[in-house]
């Protein structure tokens, strides 16, 4: 295993792949470096002497500037290096792309659920969702009434563990509790014996729909419409109070906008029109169970990989994310684009510093201009709120070597590979074009994942170096680890390991092909992701406006 790595030939910083000691001498590309201090794995040290104001380059782009003198072999940190990025200039595109060889997958298929609009789902769910937070309690009532009786309630061993601990307390064995090994946690996907072709009923709740701006209400209806019309959804039961900003008419307009002539069943129940709680719950039970019977008639059938729409996400990133996991997603993305599939790159605050590269890759000037407009508008709003994109790295990011937003962004953008940008969308617009699409979302893990699925992602690939349990109600989220230590330590939430790239046992193209095979298995319903097994149904709409 190599001890150090220079990511790009033009970089003037070097990444430690393992813990390095003060005074240790390391050799890279025939050049020797003596370390002036301890350098933890994932962190960077100076490849040359820096004076205050000197530019720091990584991934071949500007990622920061030295704040004081930094000697060759010294650690780069938040005290001596500050965020810096080059400004974006929209210019005519001359971008040329060399697609990877995908002949191995030219005739590959996955088994999905074919919808009448031509889309293909990787799952088959019924959705129960409120238009306003006032109906959350009724959604919970429906969940309690339906989940167990249909067999969709996931069992948990933790109640048995709690009973074992309580029994020890009652028998006076308190001193033995912390030394007692509890039974292993075993989980399996819940399958209904009544409706085996339906993966489940997903009960979504949120804190939106009223008391905010009309723009947020419109966006919420667009997001919910994205979930209702999603290829992974067979039909929906929608609960409305009747007086909220997120009106039923807006929802129906947003559904029609996304899929003209939409023909899957959508039952919108107005509480104030129907009457009491019993009235709305009784009707919801009847319509939902009848809908499930119809949904169960659909079975999986072969579909080309061009029917896949994959969201690209990262969270809990570390100093290896941009070297192993994210480039693996990037190569995978290029493969899927070459196969005429769709991929979405989101999290605009985490594209700060690589805007020029992405703008230059846009297929035409209007697409690049829209990207520049959304980035600048978002950045200005963040600054006006007393923050800014430069404040994006979390304490965990910084601890693991991502000391500036540009370093974090340059690594995060690797998920998008190298293919042309065919479209730029604002939240919560739908992805419609084969190829790479940029979607304006926050860097917040759940808000961004929620948005990608609302825009059509049927599978989400989520990289992490520190570990995060994020999932989604209707789309499988594949957790991709940047390092083997994390994969082994948090095996209960991780699905796929790219640590071999760091260790030198696997190349990025090899890992990407392995990931393609894994995604096909997940999309076909043959492999269940840990987020699905754990019932990790995270859903947070992006609230851009103020509360009123």
Structural commentary:
With 548 residues, the protein is of the alpha/beta class. It has helices at 136-150, 158-170, 214-228, 248-258, 271-274, 277-295, 325-338, 355-360, 365-384, 395-399, 405-412, 445-454, 484-489, 499-503, 508-523, 530-533, and strands at 4-5, 13-16, 25-28, 31-34, 44-46, 55-58, 61-66, 81-82, 109-114, 120-121, 125-130, 200-203, 233-240, 266-270, 301-304, 309-314, 342-345, 421-425, 435-439, 459-464, 477-481, 496-497. Strand 6 (55-58) and strand 7 form a beta hairpin. The model has no long low-confidence stretch (mean pLDDT 94).
Number of β-strand runs: 22
Number of helical segments?
A: 16
The major pleated sheet works out as:
7 strands, parallel
The CA-CA distance between the termini, in Å, is: 57 Å
Dominant shape: globular
What gyration radius follows from the Cα positions, in whole Å? 25 Å
**Low-pLDDT windows of residues:** none
| Spatial ordering of strands, largest sheet | 18-19-17-16-20-21-22
Helical residue percent band: 25-40%
Oligomer: single chain
Report strand %.
15-25%
Mean pLDDT across all residues, rounded? 94
Structural class: alpha/beta
